[in-house]
Amino acid sequence: MGYITFENVCKYYQSGDNVVKAVDNVNFAVERGEFCVVLGPSGAGKTTILNLLGGMDKATSGKIMVDGQEVTAMNGRQLTEYRRHKVGFVFQFYNLMPNLTALENVELARQVCRDALDPRTVMEQVGLGERLRNFPAQLSGGEQQRVSIARALCKNPALLLCDEPTGALDSKTGVQVLGLLTDVCRTHNATVVIITHNAMIAPLGNRVIHVKNGGIESIETNDHPARVEDIAW
Amino acid sequence: MVKPRNTLRKKLFRDIFRAAMQFLSIIVLCALGTFAFAALDGTARMVRTTLNTYFEDNNLADFWVTLPHAGRTELDKIRGIDGVRQIRARASVDMDTTLPGDVDVAVTAYDGEMDINVPLIRDGSALDPADMRGCLMEERFADVHGFKTGDRFTVKQGELETTFIIRGIAVSPEYLMVSNGVSADPENYGYILVNARAVPHLPLSQIVVTCTPDADRDAVQSAIEAAIPEALVVNRGAHMSTSRANNDAQMFENMTLIFPILAYAIAALIVMTTLSRMIDNQRMQMGTLKALGFSTRQIRGHYLSYAIVPSAVGGVLGTLIGHYTLPKMLWDALIAQHEMPYRLEPPISFPAWCMVGLTVVMSVAICWYTYRKSAREVTAALLRPKPPKDGKRILLERITPVWSRLSFNAKMIVRNLMRNKLRSFMSLIGILCCTMLIITSLGLQDSVTRMSQKYYTGTLNYDVRANLDSTAGDAEAYERRMDAEAAECIMERSISLRADGGSRTVMLTVLGDEQTMQHLGENETLIPIETGTVAVTMKLTRTLDIETGDTVTIYLPGDDEPFELTVGQIVHNNVSQGVYLTRTTWESLRKGPFTPTAIQLRAPTDACIAELADMDEVTSIDYPAEQIGEMLEMLDTLSSVFALLTGIALALAFVICYNMGLMNFVERLREYATLKVLGYHQKEIRRLILHENTIIALIGVLGGIYPGILLTDIIMHSCEPETGFYPGMPTVQSIVIACVTTYLFSGLLQRLLTRKVRHIDMVEALKSVE
């Protein structure tokens, strides 16, 4: 039994008479503390998997377990509590509050969380100790993504979910961000799930799940993942 | 091939349909402005046209000249004046009737044809000048007392009874307002018209005069006054019935100026925010159209239609609804007090259509302005989403001691408010106007109530007033005889007051030297009237441009030696304007004895009242406490205006706040979705939104208080006739009610809006920006 398990998870969208099978009968497990990469072309259902895992969307059928809790059985309120205390999200387009400073964006997460970390410390960890009082618009893409990671980390989440975290970044900043994420996995002992269509990232994962057409194509485990510096972009 | 124009038009209607609420709010706001204007303008024109037609068709007199004897000499003198078209001698007196109760009628006896102030016959026939026994009776009086054409009706003057046969039921243009007191009272007062030959004992004491259309009315009046110095000349402005009706029409005309300006200012602001948002949201489509090769002209036409369609629909709709509904309602309120002959309905006026045009032009201009901003960008730039507005450090942050003390949420709220200054400002204006209009609506009622109370219990500081006829006896005898806490006699006479600034027919009141019953100081305080000079009411000094120390000339009717007096003091009377003398001053003028025309009594015994009722010389008994009620009845005319005002206020607040709230919500959907993902509960997000709006609502409500008070005063003054001074001031209670109502209303609205938080779909809202 893994830390995360998906059992026969399906997500169908009804549009008129058509049924779109975004995710169809998916099964996999991820262990605690793993750095898991979900890889697949766009439209394969990666994001749907992440949304289901993060409690942002409801599965049509099947069972999702996280740390012994059944996410698929939770009601709206419980899902909010789950997102609040257990999950950290990092988005492709950062989704920072434009009218809060970098530090305040991180503080935003602390507002709702029980054992939050100190926002300043986290900001220093992601290397933005000097840019606390800047607004998102005054930061580069990589810096914004780091703020977004800091915001997720501040909650000290057991599970960090990242949706194409490097998708909007150039390769150099992309590498920096990935380095940060692998560090987090090690030092915070968090389970990290990264979604990407970029096969270059795959070697970094303890576990790589290949997704295609709404289903799992293959799962490979890698006991000795590559270091960030070594991957070719 | 399908023409691109048609596709664009299809897109226009789909867009309108999709953003139905926003378009609807533009329609409503545009309609609100034209509605207010069309309604008030329609009412004003309805009253004006009816009055003008009535006055014209029935040949209303320009002057009523009262003189001791209207003989051949006097008639010739007036007929000879340049500009006089027609004259007619009449007798006019109030008489008792044989009806039960204290029912009086005004009897007007024409010497010849009734060709001036021609009665409008409702039933029966006109009165033949040779008819010695017939009379025409006022319609309402006849209705109330059940008289029909052919009935007999008897009037009494002293012991002399005269019986007439009612030949017809009529209304007269000079009696729009049939009253010997404050308000119409057909139970107890009416009028009949007869031939002078039927009542030969009545002296002809009045000449009615009409002027040629191009005559200078003021010059004619001066000429008559010069020709017959002892005559009292009353023009249409001073003729009570005519001037009251004119004042009411004037009131609506004044309001057509005040309200639409307000409505327009607000509508403009809201249409601006809504339209600019809609165009901004369309920028990518605008870019696409450009990229597809549509011409700039086509695209511009398309986007300007965004403004033209809803503003034209709203403007026309508002005008139609305003014109065809409200004037009739207001008219009904008006005829409770005024005896109108008929109702003429003028078509929608040119200015009203102009307002529709103005509405469209205003919206298009706003749309044009926004469109130009976007159109200037290159196509490629348009295809990228507009970058979200950046956060900025706000002033408050620089004041560290304050800023650091604010909670995190408070900081966020303050930043948001400052980020969307225009939108916050709009919502603020919406709330502010709502508060202001409700305060005004309540304040107007307060002011009228307070004014009548002040007048009848403050200025007139007595409980009973007995009016005496010309057979009244000695003042001291009455004062001694009355069984009351106090009794004081006064003498009142209509006079003509002339100063450098013009002349007016006003009431001269001669008060006892030590009088205590008319409190003429500021705020209804008792001030002694100086002997040797004349005291003039404040409003009258303004009308005639008089100051203390000036000399005024007073013409007594029937006396050809006018006298001059120095204005010694300015006194205050909000309801009627006139001049005051002490008894000593009067007697020193040697214009006759001090003959009381009324006895004022404080706390009279029942026996005293009974005694008054039995006295032959007492014509009527007034109770100021009851007159308050009569005066308040006049409020009925206005109460529909008040209701309209409150309705507009709430509609306004609803449209503005809902619109702004929705816009804010849609724009920040992504932020709210992010908060949701971060694990914020619905309640927490809702509270954030609510707090933001609470701050706006509070500032708006507080900010609306002063404008509300000001507007009340402006409207009160715009309603006042020349003889009144109407200060407007809402009570504290009304202000509180208005504030609480607005605040609760806005809260309710926000609660309605924030319910949408539940339906935010995180997945949908956070999908990558494409």
Number of helices of chain B: 25
Q: Give the number of helices of chain A.
A: 6
Sum up the overall morphology of chain A in one term: globular
Based on CA atoms alone, the radius of gyration of chain B comes out at 34 Å
Number of domains of chain A: 1
- Here the CATH topology of chain A equals Rossmann fold
Low-confidence spans of chain A: pLDDT under 50, at least 5 residues?
none
Which class best fits the helix and strand makeup of chain A? alpha/beta
Greatest interface and its residue counts?
A-B, 36 and 31 residues
Largest sheet of chain A: 6 strands, mixed
Strand order of the largest sheet of chain A: 6-7-8-3-9-10
CATH class of chain A: Alpha Beta
CATH homologous superfamily identity of chain A: P-loop containing nucleotide triphosphate hydrolases
> Average pLDDT of chain B, to the nearest integer?
83
Beta strand count of chain A: 10
Structural class of chain B: alpha+beta
The domain tally of chain B reads: 4
Amino- and carboxy-terminal Cα gap of chain A? 35 Å
The fraction of residues assigned to DSSP E strands of chain A is 25-35%
Can you tell me about this structure?
By secondary structure, chain A is α/β, with parallel strands linked by helices. Chain A has one domain (32-61, 74-230): 3-Layer(aba) Sandwich (Rossmann fold), CATH 3.40.50.300. In chain A, 28% of the residues lie in helices and 28% in strands. Chain A has helices spanning 46-53, 76-85, 102-111, 119-125, 141-154, 171-187, and strands at residues 4-15, 18-30, 35-39, 61-66, 69-70, 87-90, 159-163, 191-196, 207-212, 215-221. In chain A, the strands form two sheets. In chain A, strands 6-7-8-3-9-10 form a six-stranded mixed β-sheet, sandwiched between helices. A four-stranded antiparallel β-sheet of chain A has the order 2-1-4-5, covered by helices on one side. In chain A, helix 3 (102-111) packs parallel to helix 5 (141-154), helix 4 (119-125) packs across helix 5 and helix 5 runs parallel beside helix 6 (171-187). Chain B has four domains: 1-60 and 245-387, no CATH class; 62-235, no CATH class; 420-456 and 634-652 and 667-770, no CATH class; 464-622, no CATH class. Helix content of chain B is 53%, strand content 18%. Chain B has a six-stranded mixed beta barrel with strand order 2-3-8-5-7-6. Chain B has a six-stranded mixed β-barrel with strand order 12-13-17-14-16-15. The longest helix of chain B is centred in the middle third of the chain and has 42 residues, at 240-281. The mean pLDDT of chain B is 83.
